[in-house]
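[Meeting: bench + compute handoff]

Bench side (C.D.) handed over the final construct sequence. Compute side (W.E.) agreed to return the predicted structure before the next meeting so the bench team could plan truncations. Sequence as handed over:
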Amino acid sequence: MVFEEKMIMNGEPDDEEEEEEEEDMVDPMEMVRQKCAETEHCIHTQQRLEQCESRVSSRSATEEDCTEELFDFLHARDHCVAHKLFHSVK
């Protein structure tokens, strides 16, 4: 109880204030990822991933998975992000 009173007296932020501050912060990487996912190359790899997912989900017994297509999309997006991210970070 004494410790809690000291924290309040020292002006430590409440949990609600911390949550509000965290909500206001925007991760620049998420914004860059969204922009990069809209590039032509990323759209193409995402379409290939979606085609693979629909093909695999339409079959009941298949050993195929879409790992290669997923990695291709993530690689294309992250390659774009790597070139743009640090220009927006101060």
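W.E. noted at the follow-up: The mean pLDDT is 80. C.D. will use this when planning the next construct.
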